[in-house]
């Protein structure tokens, strides 16, 4: 077993910690930093509830060791809103009823925020393809797609 | 689920990484980690040491050189999926990168890891078999080139030595298609067709096909690889041999597809019975061959 001193920037703020090699990024966020916005769903790299942006790209934080994030930039759902103002994607989920139980929502929003950064005007197919690694067990995909479309329009204004 | 304990080392150079493998009998390479980390969490793998090669520069690239498309082992699947040269000239590879796991996994997962894991359910193995690719292994003595048909030994077992790292994949460079200035010269096309129950699942069955047409429009050569219907990815040799020199007619394609189905050794599981999977191999081989030929003709 090895322990490592790491520095990782989360939502723009640097964090230093000594972590065990086997500590998964999602556990570091939730348990060490008490940032519980990132959810653990399936625990088996299937559902995407734990999605965070790792150097700008959406990844499943249950399948990355914290030590791999040494020197990296991580963005979580807590970093979406700025100065108390909702991110357009959060506004979209609110306006278009993009959530029912809300469990998949943080992951959905992180994936769609990255999608819109890469492709500001996605077609419906591109949206559905883009979120195909995030599962909504309420099967509320129709409104999730509408929420992302809302955000795309809002961001284009 | 929390993985067992291990020592973690992230070397900066390839030679350091190779040396670490030599010093630690139970070491494993950590590439994208999208197969290894789940296996560790399920306690199906418990390496004593993880050698993380993500911090080694120069292992991520896609470039054509000396008659090969060279892919660095640490190239992420999402990079392959977004590569203009892959989309333009390597449709079989483009098809494959698009259906591996899901978009989130593809941001971490690497081409080298997909092959080195030697899981017959992974998608690149069949594709690389269809291409007749080569794998470059780097060990203490330098580089060694392994033809893909010698790479997969058994379930999760490749011909890499314990102190070797897969560093590059080489695909024979694509020939110009018809419509190009050299129309009439040999041209190639390929396709990967995968049946999956849902995005992110392993293939129930998938078929990779790469064909080369001659000037007369006959099949000069065909490569056919099968995913998840045996202990290793399967090269459908009889089907490949049958097609050589033949017209891509419906009858010839059907006959070759039957030979491919005969080569499959599927296990029954919750994805389907043995008969069902064998029958799917035939259907998917027919469709993949048709699509590959269409693409070779410039369709």
Description of the structure:
The complex is a heterodimer of chains A (157) and B (299). Chain A contains 5 helices and 5 strands; from the N terminus they run E-E-H-E-E-E-H-H-H-H. Chain A has 157 residues and is α+β, with helices and mostly antiparallel strands. In chain A, strands 2-1-5-3-4 form a 5-stranded mixed sheet, with helices on one face. In chain A, helix 3 packs across helix 5. Chain A is globular, with a radius of gyration of 15 Å. Chain A starts with a strand and ends with a helix. In chain A, 46% of the residues are buried. The model of chain A has no long low-confidence stretch (mean pLDDT 97). Chain B has 299 residues and is of the alpha+beta class. Chain B is 33% helix and 25% strand. Chain B contains 11 helices and 14 strands. In chain B, a hairpin with a 2-residue loop joins strand 6 and strand 7. Chain B is globular, with a radius of gyration of 19 Å. At the A-B interface, strand 4 of A face strand 1, helix 2 and helix 6 of B.
Summarize the structure.
The complex is a heterodimer of chains A (157) and B (299). With 157 residues, chain A is an alpha+beta fold.
**What Rg of chain B, in angstroms, do the CA atoms define?**
19 Å
DSSP, total strands of chain A: 5
> What percent of residues of chain A adopt helix (DSSP H or I)?
25-40%
SSE pattern of chain B, N- to C-terminal: EHEHEEEHHHHHHEEEEEEEEEHHH
Total strand count of chain B, please?
14
**Largest beta-sheet details of chain B:** 5 strands, antiparallel
Oligomeric status: heterodimer
Form type of chain A: globular
Q: Average pLDDT of chain B, to the nearest integer?
A: 95
Order of helices and strands of chain A: EEHEEEHHHH
Taking the alpha carbons of the first and last residues of chain B, their distance comes to 48 Å
Radius of gyration of chain A from CA coordinates:
15 Å
What structural category characterises the helix and strand content of chain B?
alpha+beta
């Amino acid at each position: 077993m090895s322990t490592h001193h790491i520095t990782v920037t989360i939502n723009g703020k640097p964090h230093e910690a000594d972590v065990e090699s086997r500590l998964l990024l999602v556990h570091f966020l939730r348990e060490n930093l008490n940032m519980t916005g990132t959810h653990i769903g399936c625990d088996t790299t299937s559902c995407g509830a734990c999605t965070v942006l790792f150097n700008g790209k959406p990844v499943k934080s249950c399948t990355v060791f914290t030590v791999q994030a040494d020197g990296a930039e991580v963005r979580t759902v807590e970093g979406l809103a700025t100065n108390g103002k909702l991110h357009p994607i959060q506004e979209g989920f609110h306006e278009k009823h993009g959530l029912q139980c809300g469990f998949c929502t943080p992951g959905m929003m992180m994936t769609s925020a990255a999608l819109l950064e890469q492709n500001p005007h996605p077609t419906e197919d591109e949206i559905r393809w883009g979120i195909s690694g995030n599962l909504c067990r309420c099967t509320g995909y129709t409104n999730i797609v509408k929420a992302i479309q809302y955000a795309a329009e809002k961001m284009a204004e | 689920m929390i993985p067992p304990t291990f020592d973690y080392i992230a070397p900066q150079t390839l030679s350091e990484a190779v040396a670490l493998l030599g010093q630690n009998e139970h070491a494993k390479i950590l590439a994208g980690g999208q197969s290894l980390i789940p296996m560790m969490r399920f306690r199906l793998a418990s390496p004593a040491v993880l050698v993380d090669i993500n911090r080694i520069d120069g292992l991520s690239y896609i470039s054509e050189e000396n008659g090969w498309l060279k892919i660095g082992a640490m190239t992420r699947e999402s990079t392959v999926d977004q590569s203009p040269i892959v989309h333009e000239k390597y449709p079989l590879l483009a098809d494959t990168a698009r259906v591996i796991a899901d978009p989130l996994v593809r941001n971490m997962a690497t081409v080298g890891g997909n092959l080195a894991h030697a899981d017959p359910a992974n998608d690149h193995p069949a594709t690389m078999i269809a291409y007749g690719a080569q794998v470059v292994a780097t060990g203490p003595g330098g580089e060694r080139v392994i033809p893909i048909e010698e790479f997969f030994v058994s379930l999760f077992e490749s011909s890499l030595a314990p102190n070797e790292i897969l560093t590059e994949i080489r695909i024979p460079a694509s020939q110009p298609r018809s419509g190009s200035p050299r129309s009439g010269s040999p041209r190639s096309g390929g396709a990967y067709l995968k049946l999956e129950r849902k995005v992110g699942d392993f293939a129930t069955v998938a078929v990779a096909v790469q064909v080369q047409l001659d000037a007369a429009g006959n099949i000069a050569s065909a490569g056919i690889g099968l995913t998840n219907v045996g202990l290793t990815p399967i090269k459908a040799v009889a089907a490949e041999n049958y097609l050589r020199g033949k017209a891509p007619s419906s009858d010839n394609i059907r006959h070759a597809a039957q030979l491919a189905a005969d080569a499959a050794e599927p296990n029954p599981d919750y994805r389907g019975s043995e008969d069902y999977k064998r029958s799917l191999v035939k259907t998917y081989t027919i469709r993949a061959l048709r699509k590959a030929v269409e693409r070779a003709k410039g369709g």
